[in-house]
Structures are given as C-alpha cells and as structure tokens.
Amino acid sequence: MEQILVTGGAGYIGAHTLVELLSSGLAPVVVDNLSRSSHRLLDGVKKITGKDIPFYPVDCTDESGLKDVFSRHPQITGVMHFAAFKSVNESVEQPLLYYRNNVDSVISLLEAMHSAGVHRFIFSSSCTVYGQPEVIPVDEQAPFLKPESPYGATKQMSERILEDAVKAFPRLKVVSLRYFNPIGAHPSGLIGELPLGTPSNLVPYLTQAAIGKRKKLTVFGSDYQTPDGTCLRDFIHVVDLAKAHVSSLKKIDELPNRFEAFNLGTGKPCSVLELIRLFEKETGVPVPHEIGPRRPGDVEKVYADPSKSHRVLDWRTELTVAEALRDAWNWEKEMAHETH
Ligand code: UD1
C-alpha cells in the first residue's frame, strides 16, 4: 500500500490530515520530534480511525534520521511537511531558532527524498507570504511583500528553496499550500489544537476565555479601516484544510508545473468581533472580552481568492465558520473534562 510521510503528524493540522489520509485509503508514516506536541493527538487519531500509524521521533533537520525512515519504508511515495514552528512573536525573539528549524528541515527533507527517490512534496505554507496584499481577495499571483516576522520569512524562503529545487531535480513535484486562518477541531471531539502555554492565536484564546481559563480576550485594535474596525481574516475549518492535502496528493501528478502554490481559505472575510459574536450565537456562551491596542505586525485584512484551488485541486470548503467554532468549543470542553 502507498505510504505518505507526514512530518509534524502529532501537531494540529498534521493530525487532522492523518484522519483524512486514512479515510482515503492512504497509509501515513509519522515523523515528529514532539518538541511542540505530544502523543495526545496521535492517540486521538487512533481512536477515530482504529488504525495504528508507524511513528518515528525524528527531528526533520536530521537528514540521516530521515534517510533511515525512508529506508525502512520503501513504499513511501510522497511527503507532507507540517513540522515547523509557527509563533510569530517567538520568531521575533528567537529568529535563529526559526531559520534553523523551519528552513533546515525543508533542505534536509529534500536531500533525504532525493536519495530515497521520492518525488512528491506537499508543503505547509501560509498567507503570511503575502504580507498586507494590495488587492484582496488575494490570489496566488500576488507578490511576496517584505515579511513582517522571521516566521513569515521562513515560509517565503522555504517556497523559494522549493521553486529552485524543482529546477535542479527533474522528477520533483511540489505543491505549496498557503493556509489562511485554520480553526476548529475534529467533530468527534477527539483531536484539536493543543496550544503550549498562553495561546497567541485567536480561537484557542477565545475558547479558553469562554471556559474561564483566561480572564478575558483582548481584541487587538478596533481602529482599522474595516467595517467594524477590527481585523478581517479568512477562517477555515481545519478538517476542510486537511482534506485539501488529500486532494493535492491526488492531483499532483497531473499538474503542468512542477511547483504550484494554492490558497486554502473560504474566500469570505470575517472580522475578529464577528467571530466572537458568531461563537456566542452558536454556543450560547458569552466571551468576556475587551478592546485593546493593535498587536504589532498584524495585517489589517487578508482573505483568499480560492478559485485556483477550486479549479485545479477540485476542492472547496464544505464546513462553515460556525461549525468550526462549535467544534473548537467541544474540544475545549473535552480538554477541561480530561484535566478534572
Ligand atoms: C498569523 C499569520 C498566519 C500564521 C499564524 C501563525 C498573517 C496574516 N497570518 O495569523 O499566516 O500561520 O499567524 O500563528 O500574518 N487576535 C486578537 N486577540 C488575540 C489573538 C488574536 O484580537 O488574543 C486577532 C489578531 O489581531 C488578528 C486575528 O485575531 O487580527 C487573528 O490572529 P491569529 O489567530 O493570531 O492569526 P493571524 O495573526 O491572522
């Protein structure tokens, strides 16, 4: 059976993708150094699917460790690379850590894939590569602007490395998936986001404030040039995002170009305040919040033009933001239940 190497499979998006791979009849092999994750989500994936997944606690900057995994699994035909650090703030404080981890891992993986004769690579990129785009909704042709953070720079650099690599390795094919704002959890309540310490992303902070783990959510800025003054984002259910990875794998061999980037978003803007209101409406639970100052580095508005993904990957979102918020809330309650 065809196997797919999933780096960062113990993380938030990786774990949701494992479920979708297994339900499409593909067999994942997980590599994760567990530096920002644990076995918790892998256990959840097993509960959902009933399947055991081979797991290797290898760091993706360890080329020989990766080569060893490829040699144990000659059935691997493709790689999905989720393993990366993703905190914008931390990347400002520890840029070298971010460059070392996020950029080195891409290089090591490409080297290991090349020696193993594996040619399909699906990369976790981000809408952060666009910065504050001049035209929104933003499409894949938009230029990369100067990155706001080392984290953003690592995503731009990784894409550049991949574009150069396809020129040098004639069989390599790369799909770079530019995620907008993934939120939510699996509807089973068995896997979801496990933030380390204080969450910096909106939805995990919101659900923690709603359950009483945090005093209140601070809305970062209400004086933006947007309808209600708060930032506009494109929130996408993590299960829809996970499914796009399976669609990409199905289409990768047919793509005319050996490097292709795709936006993964709903195409519908939603403001921070709208999201809070939607959560309250969907769950009936109030979110204690206050308006605070802008957060440095935030872009005012960004949402996707996902038409290329619709057309070429034959993928589109099926779940709503309301469903994502309901699932995120169920997951938060599940975690609270576990710790009591
Ligand atoms: C950013 C990056 C994204 C990256 C992600 C990783 C951009 C446009 N997006 O997402 O590519 O993958 O970080 O973490 O650069 N907010 C609050 N209060 C909070 C937290 C957030 O008001 O406590 C607001 C933010 O100001 C922002 C929105 O909620 O307007 C979303 O924030 P967040 O969830 O952190 O994601 P991004 O910053 O959009």
Topology (elements, then pairings):
Blueprint (H helix, E strand, L loop, with lengths): L2 E5 L4 H12 L3 E5 L8 H10 L5 E2 L6 H10 L3 E6 L6 H6 L1 H22 L3 E7 L23 H19 L4 E7 L1 E3 L18 H10 L5 E4 L11 E2 L1 E3 H14 L7 E6 L5 E2 H12 L5 E4 L14 H7 L7 H18 L2
Parallel strand pairs: 1-2, 1-4, 2-3, 4-5, 5-6, 6-11, 7-10, 8-13
Antiparallel strand pairs: 9-12
Helix pairs in contact: 1-2, 1-8, 3-5, 5-6, 7-11, 9-11
The structure holds uridine-diphosphate-N-acetylglucosamine.
The site of uridine-diphosphate-N-acetylglucosamine (UD1) has 21 residues, from helix 7 and strand 8.
Architecture overview:
This protein is 41% helix and 16% strand. It has helices at 12-23, 40-49, 63-72, 88-93, 95-116, 150-168, 202-211, 238-251, 272-283, 307-313, 321-338; strands at 3-7, 27-31, 55-56, 76-81, 120-126, 173-179, 181-183, 217-220, 232-233, 235-237, 259-264, 270-271, 289-292. The strands form 4 sheets. A 7-stranded parallel sheet has the order 3-2-1-4-5-6-11, with helices on both faces. Strand 1 (3-7), helix 1 and strand 2 (27-31) form a beta-alpha-beta unit. The protein starts with a strand and ends with a helix. The mean pLDDT is 97. The site of uridine-diphosphate-N-acetylglucosamine has 21 residues, from helix 7 and strand 8.
